[in-house]
Sequence to fold (309 residues):
Amino acid sequence: MAEPKPRPVPQSIDETLALLASADYVADRALATVLYLSLRMKRPLFLEGEAGVGKTEIAKVLASSLGRRLIRLQCYEGLDVSSAVYEWNYAAQMIEIRMDEAAGQTDRDLMEKNVFSEKYLIRRPVLEALTGLPGEAPVFLIDELDRTDEAFEAFLLEILSDFQVTVPELGTIRAAEPPIVIITTNRTREIHDALKRRCLYHWVDYPTAERELEIVRRKVPQANARLSAEVVRFIQKLREIDLFKVPGVAETIDWAGALTELDKVALDPETVSDTIGVILKYQDDIARIEQGEGRRILKEVKAELAAAE
Fold:
């Protein structure tokens, strides 16, 4: 299957909105504006917000819509250079050395040059992101940066400033064209100002009810219209109460899809109770909803929709 042909970046905010909409990503104008500026200025885009609001999806949509490779660096505690940037294939290098020795090779400088060549270099996401050709730069997603430590965060400064990496055995590797960088964080800790200064910033909030309903219609088109409206209003009201973890847009989509699989056309107390684990992931939150809060919310949802008809 042929690789998709890379397409140019949008030339206006309206084109950016249309680009996102073509991939069923319902964005507001503020997000489209900062994304357009990031693409035009070739600056990393730093997206902050609660989990499940669609930050990671932006990078996926950009890659598919622009016909670019998506390179994802999933951050975690303890992430280091060998996992994020590059490492050497030590097993293959040892085999090469043994074969050279068996063949009577005695020139140590030549042996070293052979084993520390591109042939034995394992490219990790950061190095892969710097290998795009002009007009074909990949989308580089640095996902959940707040999960790493400050040492790795500091290492990224060189990448985001100069888009280059130094491999001692090979020299400095520079990007022919900077990748399209999307950085996400769930704000479990603060990211240092030095890194933020190299980026454009946007807070991705929960969508309005109208926009969330449009998202559900696009992502779960087979869902009953009444069901979609009730699901969105129920989720919106859940976000107003003090839960340990309120559901994101991803959970709204999952719930609409699950209820559709169950052939539901509207919410009822039993259905909410039976499927609450799709949207809430902590037992204390589930217990609170099942102890009467869920019935109260559902009653309000039904009354509001009836009044709007």
